[in-house]
Write a structure and sequence with these properties.
elongated; single chain; UCP037672; alpha+beta; 9 strands; 2 domains; 237 residues
Length: 237
């Protein structure tokens, strides 16, 4: 699935870049609204063609990195999409030099601003996504902390068990997923829409079946996951 997402994104960039290089300049945001004079200046400076080349180069880079998906390298997804974002945003900033002189400074400010906002958003997302998840036992309920965390009454628990292998996760409904972590709502084979708080490839996993859906959670340390199971069973027995 991920292979086709990456490949599809690369093919889309290739088609857009090819289209721009062949004269479909309307594909460039805001270009069609420019005056004829400004469009001619941009064409003379080679701005549209360079935008097309940037899209094609981004696609080629992603395709070159595509074989990483078939390796055991942990951060392959982050590397591929990180390359895409950095290369595109960096390229757009660089190509501001080919803007018409009276709008060049504004173009630099806007493109750098977009880059700052994008990287700031990603940094915050990564910070909270990788924040340590804890399972805290309270008097009448337990709480899962961090992103997508929630508090669940013990009376809503149907069963608690340790499993050594996760069922197949087929679709992300609303969650955070990287190469080594998954948090949020995902479609899980045999369990429907479930809450995941998973460190991938770190068995065992704790399966908590509740009235509101199933929860899969584990710690980086197997003994901690096992302790969560024992304590939860003690509370519901």
């Amino acid at each position: 699935m991920l292979f086709f997402v990456v490949l599809g994104t690369a093919v889309l960039f290739l088609l857009l870049g090819w289209g721009v290089r062949k004269g479909a300049y309307w594909l460039i945001s805001g270009y069609a609204n420019r005056s004829k004079e400004e469009q001619e200046q941009l064409l003379k400076a080679g701005y549209p063609q360079k935008i097309g080349s940037l899209l094609i180069a981004t696609a080629v880079g992603m395709i070159v990195l595509l074989p990483l998906l078939f390796t055991s390298f942990t951060y392959k997804v982050e590397l591929i999409f990180g390359f895409m974002i950095v290369f595109l945003l960096g390229g757009i900033i660089y190509l501001s030099r080919y803007e018409i002189p009276q709008k060049r400074k504004r173009s630099y400010v806007i493109s750098i601003g977009i880059a700052i906002v994008t990287f700031s958003f990603l940094a915050v997302l990564m910070f909270f996504g990788y924040e340590k998840t804890e399972l805290i036992l309270r008097k009448d309920s337990f709480e899962i902390t961090g992103m997508y965390g929630k508090e669940i009454p013990y009376e809503d628990i149907r069963s608690v068990e340790l499993i050594d292998e996760l069922p197949e996760v087929t679709f992300r409904v609303n969650g955070f997923a990287m190469s080594d972590i998954a948090k949020g709502k995902f479609k899980v084979t045999g369990h429907g829409t479930s809450l995941l708080f998973i460190q991938k490839a770190k068995p065992p996993y704790l399966l908590i079946e509740t009235d509101d859906g199933d929860i899969f959670i584990n710690s980086q340390h197997p003994n901690q996951t096992q302790a969560w199971e024992r304590k939860l069973i003690e509370r519901i027995e």
